[in-house]
Amino acid sequence: MPEQTPAPVPAPASVPAPVPAADSYPLGRGRVHRIGYGAMQLAGDNVFGPPRDRDEALRVLRAAVGAGVDHLDTAQYYGPGVVNELIREALHPYPAGLAIVSKVAARRDEHGAVLPFDEPHQLRQGIEENLTSLGTDRLAAVNLRLVDRTAPPGPRFDAQVAELVRAREEGLIEGVGLSNITRAHLLRALEQTDVACVQNLFNLADQSSLDVLRECTGRGIAFVPFCPLGWPRGVQNRIMSSPAVAGVAARLQATPAQVALAWLLDLAPNILLIPGTRTRAHLAENLATSTVRLDAAARAELARHFPPPTEA
Ligand SMILES: NC(=O)c1ccc[n+]([C@@H]2O[C@H](COP(=O)([O-])OP(=O)(O)OC[C@H]3O[C@@H](n4cnc5c(N)ncnc54)[C@H](OP(=O)(O)O)[C@@H]3O)[C@@H](O)[C@H]2O)c1
């Protein structure tokens, strides 16, 4: 067969495409669309201090929710306080059905260093600070974000999970989430409670949490890959500049970012995306991933260039 000339990559629409309503998955007590928005990038550089362009940050948040995004990811320690304040200013009073998910167990010092804040009473304080800065009395879920995932789960981890369970019983949060965990942490937490969501690093170039994803898929737990476009910058370049990604993108009339996100949507039905961006143009592009469908050839090509880890 003669080779076809790749179709030109479409320019991102200036107005975000609506997220198809049918494409959703349970998150805690509700269901959310499979493409949400991660707000971390809205703070200043290194997630510290005020945004470079405050007005655009507010517009991005309003455009996301206006386009149908009903899952926002944040943390009090983004900024710190900066991202939650932007969300409140842009969106409060929050529309019914908007799931705001936060995370606890870290804080920033005055120089921006990320420090643990993960004693049970500090987790409680973290949840309360999120509620106050966001101006709400309940969050859809809060993730216990482990600082060190290499420490095996034990009594300390149990006490941390118990604190989130207590917050759920008191109605401060609707779901207990876990972040930066191993499969052993998930199984240990499940001995104590239902888990609403798991948020781990996962993208084409880093699939080291595949075992955690599989466990979540089998149990119907939402899996929320953070840094879905890759992190740090070098890893993102490896994905976005990969000839395999570029080739699939050209053939499917998509962009490299859309291919990276569509690969995740295609991988398992319980994957919920929260790509982050400071611009409405990238927001529109990321939301329009809902129209991109990988075919068998695309799956095979991406698997060849980004092979999953070999199972132990
Ligand atoms: N649980 C955790 O420990 C944890 C850790 C990290 C992040 N998170 C959460 O996960 C969310 C997503 O992760 P992330 O924001 O770090 O990484 P990401 O979504 O993988 O990538 C964000 C980066 O990609 C760029 N980008 C976004 N859309 C693009 C597009 N269409 N084309 C080209 N570049 C694009 C953004 O730049 P522009 O601003 O220029 O678009 C930004 O630099 C965060 O916002 C946060 O809510 C959680």
UniProtKB/TrEMBL annotation:
One of its GO terms (cellular component) is cytoplasm. Coiled coil: none annotated. Residues 34-302 form the NADP-dependent oxidoreductase domain. Residues 1-19 have a biased composition (Pro residues). InterPro entries: AKR, Aldo-Keto_reductase, NAD(P)_OxRdtase_dom_sf, NADP_OxRdtase_dom. Pfam families: Aldo_ket_red. Keywords: Oxidoreductase. Residues 1-21 are annotated as: Disordered. One of its GO terms (molecular function) is oxidoreductase activity. CDD domains: AKR_AKR13B1. NCBIfam families: PRK10376.1. This is Predicted oxidoreductase. It comes from Streptacidiphilus jiangxiensis.
